[in-house]
Specification:
mainly alpha, two-stranded antiparallel ribbon, 5 strands, binds zinc ion, Phage_head_morphogenesis_dom, 3-stranded antiparallel beta sheet, Phage protein
Length: 278
């Protein structure tokens, strides 16, 4: 039995995006925005101060925890559906029942940690972006007060863009990481690369749709598409990617012959050929 729900719920990403933005806004309000800000460097200092407040730390952790918990339950639901009637049904139920004590539970904590860290570093990233802007504009002879005002105006857009990138990239990465951790526990080495099938799928991922891949030997989609290599990674593991892995639970779940990423290439294999290499 193959469930259709392996794709991450968009709601998790949009919730995460909104929460990160709210966090920046709220803390920004605590520190206070001075409309008469004279020095652009004061803007940078405030941003860094924002990052060092205890409340920012606290909310960063809470925000990360919420997204990972949502992803955890969302994907558990899909596994439960996969277990229904499938040959590995009992095993899947068993793994789900005790997973918080094992490697899947560990992965949950790793992911919360990683995401909290990324949110915490966001004000510093914005501060270095602002620093670069100040240097460029100063070199062009602009007055400090003017640069400061421009920064205040740019800030909402700057932070919203950053929040959206973090939310999209990290929600997707966490989704893949949890599917992989549960697959590992079940001894499932292969997955089908799925794209979100909308107009925004990057060209190098389009040809990955439907390809069988191994979690421990990820492909380089760019290299396979004769584009500039940006490394090997699994579905959903690169910035702005909404692709996702669909674990191959049973060899009969897919049609044969099938496209397989094997030996650094995409080859067409029969069920028998695949059985020999799998
Ligand atoms: Zn993708």
């Amino acid at each position: 039995m193959k469930p259709e729900g392996w794709q991450a719920q968009r709601r998790i990403e949009t919730d995460y995006d909104r929460a990160i933005r709210r966090l920046i806004q709220r803390t920004w309000q605590i520190i206070g925005i001075d409309p008469d800000l004279l020095s652009p460097w004061d803007f940078v200092r405030r941003l860094e101060r924002l990052a060092n407040t205890g409340s920012f730390d606290h909310f960063a952790l809470a925000t990360a925890k919420r997204m990972i918990t949502q992803t955890f339950f969302d994907t558990a639901q899909t596994w439960r559906e996969a277990a229904r009637g499938g040959s590995k049904g009992r095993l899947i139920y068993e793994v789900l029942r005790q997973e918080m004590q094992g490697p899947v539970g560990n992965m949950v904590y790793v992911l919360i940690d990683r995401n909290a860290g990324i949110i915490r570093s966001m004000p510093f990233d914005l501060a270095s972006q602002a620093t670069l802007y100040i240097q460029e504009q100063t070199a062009e002879g602009k007055r400090p007060e003017q640069i400061a005002q421009e920064l205040l105006q740019k800030f909402p857009h700057m932070s919203a863009k950053k929040a959206a990138l973090i939310a999209r990239t990290e929600a997707s990465k966490s989704h893949t990481a949890l599917i992989q951790a549960r697959s590992d526990r079940l001894g499932l080495a292969w997955y089908v690369w799925r794209t979100s099938q909308d107009g925004r799928v990057r060209s190098s991922h389009k040809h990955m749709e439907g390809v069988l891949c191994r979690f421990d030997t990820p492909p380089s989609p760019e290299l396979l598409a004769d584009e500039k290599n940006v490394g090997s990674y699994n579905a959903g593991e690169i910035y702005n990617c909404r692709c996702y892995p669909e674990p191959l639970i049973d060899i009969t779940d897919i049609s044969w012959p099938h496209k397989v990423h094997y030996g650094g290439q995409i080859v067409r294999m029969s069920k028998e050929q695949f059985r020999k290499v799998a």
